[in-house]
Amino acid sequence: MLANKKRQKIIGMLFCFFILIVIFIWYNNGRKLVKSHSIGYAIIEKCEWVSRATARYVVSGRFKLGNTEYHTSCQLSCNSLKLAKLKTELIGLKVPVVYYPEDPSINYLLIENKDYAFYKVPIHDSLKWVDSFVRCQ
């Protein structure tokens, strides 16, 4: 009985340690991207519903650097968006992506104006309609 409680305690501590490592890696990658990034262009390939309760969508695509192709994505959250309309309007669209030059797998797809502002990337006139399309009214 006592050995079982010890085992549960150790498993719980290992789980917490694992979660802390994941959070640290996520935070560190985000800091790298903000400090130093380059801009590329990705083609949006997929729009998926992640959660009906929170009306979250993931928009994902690919971009190419040299001979290597990278996956990129971002999340959108809005109750008034409809998945079919989102797919119709966004799939095939070419949009900017910011990536960390030393490791392009650390990247973020720019869809909303707030993302452009956060990464200090100018938004092209031909893409200004996208923010008004995905923004909650």
Topology:
Blueprint: H1 2-35, E1 38-51, E2 56-65, E3 68-77, H2 83-90, E4 94-100, E5 103-109, H3 113-118, H4 128-134
Antiparallel strand pairs: 1-2, 1-4, 2-3, 4-5
Descriptive account of the structure:
This protein is an alpha+beta fold and about 140 residues long. It is about 40% helix and about 35% strand. It has a five-stranded antiparallel beta sheet, covered by helices on one side. The longest helix has about 35 residues, at about 1-35. The radius of gyration is 19 Å and the shape is globular. The mean pLDDT is about 80.
Summarize this, please?
Helix content is 40%, strand content 35%. With 137 residues, it is an alpha+beta fold. It has a five-stranded antiparallel β-sheet with strand order 3-2-1-4-5, covered by helices on one side.
